[in-house]
Design goal:
mainly beta, Neuraminidase, 4-stranded antiparallel beta sheet
């Protein structure tokens, strides 16, 4: 496995953003997260809203909380793992889940202040890259080598879901990167080789969709105008207006690989490597993009209560 490093061409086929080996005995993987003196400067890999609160997760089991629209962050009081967390989601202001290396899934019922371990597999480091819930009980987590898990009881139990083989492939082992759902509760998972996995029956059955791209798709979301948008390697983005049946290329105006796409009231915003910040307004055929002067390796974005962007990177929170 690989140390914490920026994505390069050799890694893009295997890991969505940054890879870390938590090369430790099981007792350390499941040890509580250390209290760091400046946790907001550590690598952060995903972020979301929990009501008015912003919650971000990253290396060493760090969970960051902000109650002032991203002006300041503090580390969560109790996290039961010290392995890297790659994804976080909330079904409401109180109930949330985070996932990461060693197949770890942790859960909170108090807005992210304290967390409990729901799942970990120390027999092999098969990391989870994404977790998403349709409601407080129905959730999915996805990761390396077509690892797909489902829960129907809020995470009390997680069951492995068989993934079909893509057409022309001898086995189902594509990496699964981002789980999201649309307004009809169809579930989508972005994956390698320009492909997207879809279920229209709550996760009972899955089928592969081809966007026409060839690179890994690390990000995806459903826009307020009904479109699906996915993006990934080398700034490639695609949209679907018919629930994933057909896809067309969008111009992202970005050469940096896209690491996050998030729906807002006005459309979709995104971030990527090399400091790119993207926006596609409702109805717009393409993205507009700016490149930050610092060319920060951006990993996640959320909008705060003032509808402005809060950015995260391999070097932590990006200060406005």
């Amino acid at each position: 496995m690989l140390k914490i490093i920026a994505v390069c061409a050799a890694l893009c086929a295997c890991f969505p953003v940054f890879a870390q080996t938590d090369d430790k005995p099981a007792t350390l993987i499941e040890a509580p997260a250390h209290a760091w003196p400046a946790p907001e400067r550590k690598m952060m890999l995903d972020a979301t809203r929990a009501g008015t609160r912003i919650v971000a997760v990253g290396e060493h089991g760090i969970v960051l909380l902000s109650d002032d629209d991203g002006q300041s962050f503090r580390q969560a009081a109790k996290v039961p793992v010290s392995s890297t967390l790659t994804a976080v989601t909330f079904s409401d202001a109180e109930h949330g889940w985070a996932a990461g290396h060693w197949g770890t899934i942790i859960a909170t019922q108090d807005g992210g202040e304290t967390w409990k371990l729901q799942r970990v597999d120390t027999s092999t480091d098969q990391p989870l890259f994404s977790v998403d819930f349709l409601d407080a009980r129905e959730g999915f987590a996805a990761g390396l080598w077509s690892l797909l898990l489902a829960t129907h009881d809020g995470g009390s139990t997680w069951t492995r879901v068989p993934v079909p083989k893509p057409v022309g492939d001898s086995r189902a082992d594509r990496n699964l990167y981002r789980v999201f759902s649309d307004h009809a509760n169809a579930i989508y998972i972005t994956a390698e080789q320009g492909s997207v996995l879809r279920s229209r029956d709550g996760g009972a059955n899955w089928s592969w969709l081809e966007t026409g791209g060839k690179g890994s798709l690390w990000a995806g979301t459903a826009a307020p105008d009904g479109r699906l948008m996915v993006g990934g390697l080398l700034g490639n983005t695609f949209e679907s207006r018919d629930g994933g049946q057909t896809w067309s290329h969008m111009d992202s105006h970005s050469s940096g690989s896209i690491t996050d796409l998030v729906a807002t009231r006005g459309g979709v915003v995104g971030v990527g490597l090399d400091g790119f910040v993207l926006e596609a307004r409702n109805g717009a055929p393409n993205f507009s993009a700016i490149q930050r002067a610092d060319r920060a390796a951006l990993t996640a974005v959320v909008t705060n209560g003032k509808n402005t962007l809060v950015l995260f990177s391999k070097d932590g929170v990006i200060r406005r």
